[in-house]
Amino acid sequence: MHMSLDGFVAGPHGEMDWIAINDRVFSFVEQFIDEADTGLYGPTTFGMMESHWPAVLKDPKASGHQLNHSRWYEKAGKVVFSRKLNKLENQSAKLIKENLANEVATLKNAPGKNLMIFGSPRLVHSFAQLGLIDEFVITVNPIILGTGIPMFAGIDRRIRLQLIKSTELEAGVVGYHYISGGSAPE
């Protein structure tokens, strides 16, 4: 997840034009994507992914990182979490509407690689509140937005994290990899 220094993942209207995207940022994030075989999405992010990544494979100007992610996206399992949707246009994606904790436990116990949430801040809020996130990969961009969609909202418990690695990237961006250590004492 890309985040501003003041903790926002998008501007007040969903703007993400402030996110530094370059080869070093792609490389940092790509190492975690390579360890996953299933993408977890909210409906808005899934719609953005569906409208973008399949077309990249046909784009002669696409970078190596873009092509790598597009190939990953094509092969990966896709799970969309939404209480409002009744069906998905993409029949290869799975829709989960309820029983979030049980469904995620089933996905985690299935054979394969890791699961990874892409974007989808409200999904991150729900997963974090329920203690369903094992690792956080965050790139912090050197910008203060002042307002927008927060990375963490609606979480009424402490979650202790252990820093595994921090990586200084280009343009003042820093990548962080944390593992969840469970709830912290009050």
Topology:
Layout: E1 2-4, E2 8-10, H1 23-33, E3 36-41, H2 43-56, H3 64-75, E4 77-81, E5 94-96, H4 100-109, E6 114-117, H5 121-129, E7 135-141, E8 149-150, E9 159-168, E10 174-183
Parallel strand pairs: 1-7, 3-4, 3-6, 4-5
Antiparallel strand pairs: 2-8, 7-10, 9-10
Strand order within the widest sheet?
A: 1-7-10-9
Helix % is 25-40%
Supply the CATH architecture: 3-Layer(aba) Sandwich
- The CATH first-level class comes to Alpha Beta
Largest sheet: 4 strands, mixed
- Classification by helices and strands: alpha/beta
Order of helices and strands: EEHEHHEEHEHEEEE
Taking the alpha carbons of the first and last residues, their distance comes to: 27 Å
The residue-averaged pLDDT reads 92
Number of domains: 1
Radius of gyration: 16 Å
Describe this structure in words.
This protein has helices at 23-33, 43-56, 64-75, 100-109, 121-129; strands at 2-4, 8-10, 36-41, 77-81, 94-96, 114-117, 135-141, 149-150, 159-168, 174-183. The protein has one domain (22-133, 151-168, 179-183): Dihydrofolate Reductase, subunit A. With 186 residues, the chain is an alpha/beta fold. The protein is globular. Helix 2 (43-56) packs across helix 3.
